[in-house]
Amino acid sequence: MAATTDLARYKLTFHVPPSAVEACKTAIFAAGAGRYPDRKTGNFNYTECCWTTSGTGQFRPGDAANPHIGKVGVLEKLEELRVETLCVGEDVARAAVAALKTHPYEEPSYSVFKLEDF
Question: Taking CA 71 as the corner, what is the angle to CA 65 and CA 76, rounded to the nearest 5 degrees?
Fold first, then answer.
């Protein structure tokens, strides 16, 4: 296994309604997301780290949708939270995405970006 400091780093970003943010964060942290390693020792000196901001999301469910919020064919605008966190190692990034099954939306909105180390 590679040293923690040698593993690729990823940023996971997802959008979630405020009522579900704590359950989603608990799930991704349990999967290993949000841990920052010390560059010298590789020890995880900080855990459960993330950045959370609020904004307005919008969507219009199609005829075949089964929306958690809103109605088919009706444009919905609602407060959502954007959560960003670090995942050290591809396995952790994949596990954190899988942990988003706790998300209430039929299709959660998320992105994963591989980070460069400068």
Answer: 105
**What pTM value is reported for the model?**
0.87
3-state helix, strand, coil in the chain (%, to 5): 25, 35, 40
Give the tens place of pLDDT for each residue, 37-83: 888 888 899 999 999 999 999 999 999 998 888 899 999 999 999 99
| Rounded distance between C-alpha atoms, residue 72 and residue 110, angstroms | 22
CATH number assigned to the domain with residue range 4-113, chosen from the 4 options 2.60.120.260, 3.30.990.10, 3.40.50.150, 3.30.70.120? 3.30.70.120
Q: Which residues contact 60 (CB under 8 A, 6 or more apart)?
A: 73, 74, 75, 76
Buried b (16+ CB within 10 A) or exposed e, 22-31: eebbebbbeb
Largest CA distance in the chain: 54
Rounded distance between C-alpha atoms, residue 9 and residue 4, angstroms = 10
